[in-house]
Write a structure and sequence with these properties.
single chain, 213 residues, alpha+beta, eight-stranded mixed beta sheet, 19% helix
Amino acid sequence: MDMIRNIFCVGRNYAAHAAELSNKVPTSPFLFSKPTHAFVEASGQEISLPGNRGPIHFETELVIRIGRPYEKGIKLDEIIANMAIGIDFTLREVQNELKKKGYPWLLAKGFPNSAVVSKFIPFPGIDELKNRNFSLLKNGKKVQSGNISNMIFDLQTIIDFSAVHFGLGEGDIIFTGTPEGVGEVASGDHLSLAWDESVLGDCIIKLSDNASP
C-alpha cells in the first residue's frame, strides 16, 4: 500500500442519508477529516474497535485516492489514481452529543481503525462508476448499497472544493459520502466491501474496551 497522507470525508452527500439521521441537506460540500491512525486496509483480518463508547455505525462509501498535486482545471481522470470501497465508522451517540454542543466530530470519527478501506483498484471513469453500485455485506447479507449518481455534490466538485480549502496532493484519500442504510456493528460481524458483484476487501469486527490497532 502506498503512503496515505490526508484522509478527508464528505458528510451528508446523499439526501436520503441526511434524512435518515434528521440532518439538513448542505448547500456546499461539508467535510471533516480523520487522522492517519484511523486508516486500516480490510484484508480479511480482525479489526478492533472501541466497545465502551456506545453504538458504532458503519457508513459505506466510495473512496478515491489522489495521484498528483491539484492544479486548477484538472479533470478527474488526471488526478484520481485509483479507488476503493471504505467504511467510515462512527460512534453515533458520541457524535450526537458533539453535534448538540456544536463541537467538532473528531472524537466520534477519528478513533483508530475508524477508516476501513478495501484494496484499491484502477479508477474506471465516471460513466463506469454510474453503471455500478458499491455495497456492504454484513454476515453475507447486503445491508447498504449506493451509486454516485445519487450524490448531492459530484466528484469534481468535491475535489475542487477540497483543494481550494485544504490543499490536495498525492497520497490523499477522500471518503465521498454514504448513502442511506447505515447501521450498528457487533462483535463477530463479518463485513465485506463490494464493488458491483466483486468483493474488494473484508474484515471481522472485534469490540473491545481496550481497542487498539
